[in-house]
Design brief:
Immunoglobulin-like, alpha/beta, 12 helices, single chain, seven-stranded antiparallel beta sheet, eight-stranded parallel β-barrel, 495 residues, TIM Barrel
Length: 495
């Protein structure tokens, strides 16, 4: 039995409906716009994180002076703003024209280059004043174009994953953590100075780490000692979901691994005196290693199934329970342009033929949650319930039924849900994601389809991915839900 409370215990900001859209320059293309259009239409995502891609903007003019071409940048940002997205802009990468090492380039993808033949320069600048000037000019441009009031609601970020050679100082060994942290502090300081010279109302931070190592402690101590402005701390938490872990005998997707990593992050932040600082988990969970799929790690097939959506709901539940000050959790969508078959285990919302995955529909459903967070009393330890309501006393209850490792080791059950008296007599609209509902991959399996899909099969699978209502019933004293392993439900009530 699940008993839903009626008293709001807190007003909860939605921190879960956000994403990193990658590759950034797919915003210019029809397939990228198709994804962004769908997310906006379904209200699946509120904030989009992209790279500024300074390599497309900054060059030296005929006199050897810094010059700027914002046309591609404006095309991308205009499109996102017109669709109603808020933005998190990662100021990256190092423009080759000011790089100390012009050959320090990486692709960080399956292919020899990034999307559209580009590479990522990982070098430090020849002069940090040049980097500061670039950050200033870029910030000045977006403030002039979109207005200070709009840009002040965005988040500006210095670089991406500066703790690993794939993005920063690729000519140094991976173990050179202290050197990277010290150089990144210089990079961040120049970034902060450039932004502050434009406006003191803007929100900026870093370091968007790949791993939580000594790097974070060094950086935060430098920020405190040097009195550098830092509005938020960004990090990536993929604990226990790398291919190397999942390929081990004990490897498995577990929210508990994410929690352990988060606790380590919190300990470091508290130790350095930043416990009241805003936190952004701008990449998380089962979406690790974007350019890896089932070729490298067969376990990544779970990113096509109901397992991913169950993980998502349990993770939201856990963060709420822990009370961590996370303002945004951003799922990373990359590898999107490298698909050659539909169900290949990349970390994205849609397959090659644009079948919506369970994780996408889970994001759509999570966007329907209200701000008023309630208590719930649940007897089953494998059921995780997120109950909410609005000022009209309409309820929205999100839940999942899953085991610790999201295995098929739970019995099928029927769970009863008791709503408060003020909900009785209203209509409940119920959505379900499980092996039988809103799940193109499971339907593909059941029907015995092969990768070379016919037009009719594509039509069938696309329809399966379009979120449908499971049931619409009057609210009585109890509602009954059939639960199978990793099932996800959203129940909305209204007059």
């Amino acid at each position: 039995m699940i008993k839903i409370g009626s008293t709001v215990i807190k007003q909860q900001t939605n921190f879960w409906n956000n994403c990193l859209f990658h590759p950034t320059d797919a915003i210019e293309d029809a397939w990228g716009k198709k994804i962004l259009d769908r997310m906006a239409e379904d209200r699946a995502v509120n904030t989009v994180r992209i790279y500024t891609m300074f390599e497309d903007i900054v060059y030296l003019d005929e006199n050897g002076e810094l010059a700027y071409d914002f046309r591609l940048n404006d095309l991308r940002l205009d499109y996102l703003v017109e669709k109603g997205y808020s933005l998190l802009l990662a100021y990256a990468a190092m423009p080759e024209c000011i790089a100390t090492n012009k050959h320090a380039a990486t692709s960080n993808s399956k292919n020899k280059t990034r999307y559209k033949g580009k590479l990522f320069n990982t070098s430090v600048p020849t002069d940090y004043k040049l980097w500061e000037e670039i950050c200033y000019e870029y910030t000045r441009h977006i403030v002039e174009r979109y207005g200070e009031d709009t840009v002040s609601k965005w988040h500006l970020q210095c670089f991406n994953e500066p703790d690993i050679p794939e993005f920063f100082l690729s000519d140094l060994p991976r173990e050179a953590i202290e050197t990277r942290a010290e150089e990144y502090t210089k990079l961040y300081t120049a970034f902060a100075n450039g932004i502050c010279h434009v406006s003191e109302k803007l929100c900026f931070g870093g370091p968007a780490l790949a791993y939580i190592t000594k790097f974070l402690e060094i950086f935060l101590n430098n920020v405190k000692e040097q009195n550098i402005l830092l509005d938020y701390i960004a990090y990536h938490n993929y604990a226990g979901t790398s291919p190397y872990t999942l390929l081990s005998p004990d490897g498995s997707f577990m929210v508990e691994n994410w929690v352990k990593q988060q606790e380590h992050i919190m300990e470091t932040i508290k130790k350095c005196g930043f416990e009241d600082t805003e936190l952004i988990a701008d990449e998380w969970g089962m979406s690790s290693c974007g350019f890896y799929n089932i070729e490298e790690c067969p376990a990544f097939i779970a990113r096509e199934t109901e397992v991913y959506s169950a993980y998502f709901v349990k993770l939201i539940y856990t963060i709420l329970e822990k009370g961590w000050n996370i303002s945004k959790m951003m799922i990373c969508l990359s590898g999107q342009h490298e698909m050659v078959t539909d169900f290949s285990g990349f970390r994205n919302f849609f397959t090659m033929n644009f079948f919506a995955k369970p994780i996408y529909n889970a994001h759509v459903l999570s966007g329907k949650l209200h701000k008023g967070l309630l208590n719930a009393n649940c007897e089953n330890k494998n059921v995780y319930v997120i109950p909410t309501k609005n000022e009209k006393d309409d309820y929205a209850v999100f839940l999942t039924y899953c085991s610790e490792k999201f295995h098929e080791d739970l019995p099928d059950i029927t769970e009863k849900i008791a709503f408060p008296e003020d909900a009785i007599g209203k209509t409940a609209t119920i959505y379900c994601i499980d092996k039988e509902h809103n799940n193109p991959y499971r339907l593909y399996e059941r029907k015995g389809y092969t990768p070379d899909l016919t037009e009719e099969q594509i039509k069938i699978l696309k329809a399966e991915g379009n979120l449908s209502v499971y049931a619409r019933v009057p609210v009585t004293e109890t509602l009954e839900l059939p639960l199978t392993a990793n099932a996800v439900y959203l129940i909305e009530t209204e007059d």
